[in-house]
Amino acid sequence: MREDAPTPGPLGDLEAVLADLWQRSRATARDLAHGLHPRLDPTAYPLLAVLGHAEAMRPSELSEALLLDRSTVTRQVDAAERLGLVTRVPDPRDARARLVALTPGARERLERLRRARLDRWHASLAQWPTQEVEQLTRLLERLRDAGVD
Amino acid sequence: MVDERVAEDLVQAFSDVVRAVRVGDRQGQGSAPAAVLALLADLHRLGDVRVGDLAAVSGTGAPTASRHAAAAEELGLVVRRPDPDDRRACRLALTPDGARVLEAHRAQQSRRLCQSLADWSDEDADTLLRLLRRLGPNAPAPTPLH
């Protein structure tokens, strides 16, 4: 494979389209983080999104779900706690341990943002035949499984 | 009208792909931390900017933006210049090294993508391209986790 020249044909075009998507996805993460709290660092949005799917999680579980090392998770949790977005609660299974959970206010805002995004997706897909949405989903899953990494 | 579940599956798949790219970025980076690369990308897009404007664009807040700018400056990837419009302020600009690091990072991202698409037929790549284009610029962009 050549190292530098752009790939010709559909693959090259696909690369450009995907590069544009990554760019926009960074902006989206920024907007979502701001929607949760004006001072939340955008890189911490995934932490809150993961917590939105659970009641409360151990720091080790967060670290695994986010693919971040423990010290980064701790730093993000500390920052989110200072902003009143997450709270540390006792672990019912282990008296010495603490779990991390969203505060009710953060959960409500997160849910509202998620709902709004899903509505936008629905609007974008309104004219699409279901079959084509499923086809796109399959191709994206294949891209993921090929390990874009 | 597309079923709720079908749409959710798509959003999930999108989110997973973006996440895979992020993870690859994290593993593949060696040249500079991700925050510095993001700063270089912003500078490349915007041209010379004040740190304050950069903070607004990146959404990180002024202290974080200053920290990233200082890190990039230390690596010789950006340079501070006096702001001609405001003597108390300064502007950040990419150095040639900064531009090279950014370019190398982008090339590496494309290379990884090409590798993962290597065994795709032109037809599948075409279909994916067509469907992504059809989503258009107004569709919400995927986030690493939704």
Would you give an account of this structure?
The complex is a heterodimer of chains A (149) and B (146). Chain A is elongated, with a radius of gyration of 19 Å. Helices cover 63% and strands 10% of the residues of chain A. Chain A contains 6 helices and 2 strands; from the N terminus they run ααααββαα. The longest helix of chain A is centred in the N-terminal third of the chain and has 28 residues, at 9-36. Chain A is mostly helical. A two-stranded antiparallel sheet of chain A has the order 1-2. Chain B has 146 residues and is mostly helical. Chain B has one domain: Arc Repressor Mutant, subunit A (Orthogonal Bundle). Chain B has helices at residues 4-28, 34-46, 51-58, 62-74, 96-117, 122-135, and strands at residues 49-50, 78-83, 86-94. In chain B, α2 packs across α4 (62-74), α2 crosses α5 (96-117) and α3 (51-58) packs across α4. The longest helix of chain B is centred in the N-terminal third of the chain and has 25 residues, at 4-28. Chains A and B meet through α1, α2, α5 and α6 of A and α1, α2, α5 and α6 of B.
